[in-house]
Design a protein that fits this description.
Helices cover 0% and strands 68% of the residues. The protein is an all-beta fold. The chain has a single domain, classed as Porin (Beta Barrel), CATH 2.40.160. Strands 1, 2, 3, 4, 5, 6, 7, 8, 9 and 10 form a 10-stranded antiparallel beta sheet that branches. A hairpin with a 4-residue loop joins strand 5 and strand 6. It starts with a strand and ends with a strand.
Length: 114
């Protein structure tokens, strides 16, 4: 199924948090939400909070190792790599359909527009 979306990443005043509104369509279905990314000094990890257009809230840990970014939550995970001098992010999303085994969910390519 084709996914078309607009994602914007913006540093909030003070530069402690990043706001990420996302809007799009998965096939004929409109989707969207708002993600807030910040650093948790207690866990020493970045945390992502996502509020979607169906009223759901999720929390994921975000980390970077060897230039690979990883998001890990209970119901979703993702790995992403920046290329093209940081202007392109290619991300592979997965979900545990049976609660145990992870299966591909979607592949996403985000491109920075100057």
């Amino acid at each position: 199924m084709t996914i078309v979306a607009s994602d914007v990443y913006q540093r909030l005043p003070g530069e402690y948090f990043i706001m990420h509104p996302a809007y799009g369509r998965i096939g004929a279905i409109g989707v969207g939400g708002l993600e807030i990314i910040g650093f948790d000094p207690t866990t020493r990890q970045f945390q992502c909070y996502f509020f979607d257009s169906q009223g759901n809230t999720t929390r994921e840990a975000l980390s970077c190792r060897d230039h690979v970014w990883s998001w890990q939550g209970t119901h979703a995970r993702c790995t992403g790599v920046f290329t093209d001098d940081g202007k392109t992010l290619t991300a592979r999303h997965e979900r545990p359909d049976d609660g145990v085994h992870w299966v591909p969910s979607m592949n996403v390519v985000l491109r920075k527009i100057d």
